[in-house]
Amino acid sequence: MQRQGITCPAPCGPVSVRGRALCVGDAAAAGAVPSGLVETRPAPCDLWTAEEAAAADRHTMGPCGIPSSVLMERAALCVARVVADRARAAGLSVVALAGPGNNGGDAVACARILHGWNLEATVVLSTDADRGALAEQVAWARAAGVPVLDARAPLPDGPAVWVDGLLGTGSRGAPRGGVARRIAQLRARRGPVVAVDVPSGVDPTTGAVADLHVSADVTVTFGRSKPGLHVTPGRASAGRVYVASMGLVSDPSTRGEHRLVDPRAVAAWVGGLPAGPHKGARGRLVVVGGGRGTPGAAVLAGAAALRAGAGIVEVATPNAGVRAQLVAHRPELVAASTLDPAAFDRTTAAVVGPGLTDPEGVAVAAVWWSEAPVPAVFDASALAHLPASRGPASRIVTPHPKEAARMLAAAQAGPAGVAWIQAHRIEAARRLCEATGAIVVLKGAGTVVAHPDGRLAVATEGGPALSTGGTGDVLAGLVGALLARGLDPWRAACAGVHLHAIAGSRARRDVDAEDVGVVAMDVAEAIPAALADPTRAERYPALLEG
Predict the structure, then answer these.
(1) Which positions ≥6 away from 541 have C-beta within 8 Å?
(2) Are 206 and 339 part of one and the same domain?
(3) How much is the pLDDT for 512?
């Protein structure tokens, strides 16, 4: 357990955080979210790495003089609220798994509190509790009448609500010894798992996951959320994330650079864009793309840009047949035959790459990168043809993991396999920033947006409904439209990623689909609804005050 501060620079406001069924593994444990748990207030947007959390922990207990036992009790109370709601709703007992550190003490204190609330709770140790905070908490629990099983005892049989207090944000490396044995036993049990601060075996900073790790249904993290709870692969093991506010004080010398893409901030940014008295006032975007075999990519990018509010959208392609198809499928688009950046002197932003597969087209990507005097998004085929030099205006690149691997390999910027990219998404995005000088949007579950100046944001929204061909073209057109309408490149990238995910969720509801069945044009058509309500976030963490 680490102790974090509570200041947040993002604009605050109301947000609707939608609940979902959180219990898995047992029919009796599935169903409605317990009343009183889902907060209407969103959590702060800033994130803390393990090192930043440790610094805040030291500051809180050092200069601020707050004892560790006080922090532990408040942490345990927050976790107990979540566990109690699930145990009562499912009619299950609670088993708290305690590791050797402060997280183990949190879990034991949680069990003691639940026992005091007349809930059946048992503590199971993974190591001898013979020193420190854990020994103190075990003594208190036993005195209160809580059953405590030693490290040699097996886990109770049958379903339960399991509290994972085995490892915290201060742990390093893969689980081992008694902790590893308890994780292996837990994976064979049924019932919902509530992780304390971070699921055991998940790196809180990078999201890397050990072979032996806990998959939680809910994670209650303290003071601030952690990057590893929101990026792949850790995101999949964290479940629903709640941030417990405990009145902690951050170290004033610590300046974090990690944030979540905040729905409240996105709403403020896009809400501040002028509607415009005429089409020219809403920006003019050019989409460079649309090859003979892939004309649809440019149509999708252009349609998304129009739905995102761009006043005029031109599609530049030298192929007359492709231009005819574009106009036939989307008459609002303007077709242009030249690929020369100088010919688009009235353009306010550009998107380069969707469907740009013809030989005469791909070579022009480098020209646009080096010569276009406007901010531009580079996607798809264009990503394979970028020069090492910097452009005259801001650039945004939007690779998926395979494209990111090729870009890193071409730049000789370190490990470049897709598996490495997926296991180290934050580091991969930062390396791409260094290699290109561009803002990087590394697409995927928990999209990472990285800026060359060190800023980094993680998107909470998005899901399998976006895993279909053409949705990347929709994202490129959406970001391009926000650039054309006047958002600065960093905000355009962050807002575009969030709105794209919200549109995907809206499209899923509109076509009455589950994780499959949504197509890219459905997402493009849902962009106006996303712009109208950017705060309808399903995975953004909620705040627990205690």
Answers:
(1) 17, 42, 43, 221, 225, 241, 242, 243, 260, 460
(2) no
(3) 84
